[in-house]
Amino acid sequence: MPDPENIVQITNLFHRYGSVTAVKGISFFVRKGEMFGLVGPDGAGKTTVIKSLCGVLTFSQGEVEILGYRLPREKKRIKNNIGYLSQRFSLYGDLTVDENIEFFAEIHGVTDYNSLQDELLEMTRLKPFKKRLAERLSGGMKQKLALACTLIYRPQVIFLDEPTTGVDPVSRRDFWRILSRLLSEGMTFILSTPYMDEAERCSRIAMMHQGEILLQGSPAEIKSRMEYQIAEVTAPDIRNLLPAVKTWKNAIETQMFGDRINILTDDFSALETALKEYSDGQEFPITQVRQVSPSIENVFISLMKTADK
């Protein structure tokens, strides 16, 4: 029996493409006013889930209830109350910013939208560009316009499928500023993202890998599941350091992030001593060793390695 407090309830969802099972029996719920994140790399099944919940794809098995309506039986009722925004949202390039918003309002039966349109243009900082053709906007401005087109018909739940992929850092920050404001006003979002910094912004997340949910909970709950201490190591020749570290008994797992290594250990002090002894005999010694708090990325990488064994 679905919990009446859940605005979205997914139970044992499967999606198959012929002999390939892209989504493998996942379950989760979303409450009103939440930002729920489906987090994982390309191929994890995130987009398949989003499209299944929006009624774009027909799922193979499971139960989906959104706003009290069941998919696929009440698909039309659901589609009238949700919004969908992807990284390839379809704007009309030969229409202006204003005309795109007006078009989406009218096809959803919204008539009294002038004040909301002005508010959305202000919120997205698109007012100076309202007469510009959509095809002449930057990638980030197009995504903000796409969000305005979605908001003009006041959906109760918005599905965001990797909306900031390929967007410049400034526009990405603006996009999240808008989402934060909408969240504070009680709007509900389901977001798919490969970015761990975006996962940190969610109320709760589900970590997806190869069509399955490995772990779900709030970002704080996810990070609390890390059973090891984390040593962060920086060195001028980090790639040559990595093979040596992997042989040490206190290095349970190594994770490389650009110019640093995170080492998962059950004894930080012993590992720190071993690193210092190793560094003393090197032409390019280790620059820094420090203990850091686990990140969502640390937990996710560790879970994926365990799942792939």
Residues in helices, as a percent range: 25-40%
Shape: globular
Output the structural class: alpha/beta
CATH class of the domain at 227-293: Alpha Beta
Return the string of H and E elements. Answer: EEEHEEHEHHHEHEHEEHEHEEHEH
* Rg, nearest Å: 23 Å
Per CATH, the architecture of the domain at 227-293 is 2-Layer Sandwich
Strand order, sheet with most strands: 6-7-8-3-9-10
At the third CATH level, what is the topology name of the domain at 227-293? Alpha-Beta Plaits
* Biggest pleated sheet: 6 strands, mixed
Q: Which range does the strand content fall in?
A: 25-35%
Rounded mean pLDDT score = 91
Distance between the amino and carboxyl termini? 36 Å
Describe the oligomeric state of these chains in a short phrase: single chain
- Low-pLDDT stretches: none
- Let me know the number of strands: 14
SS field, number of helical segments: 11
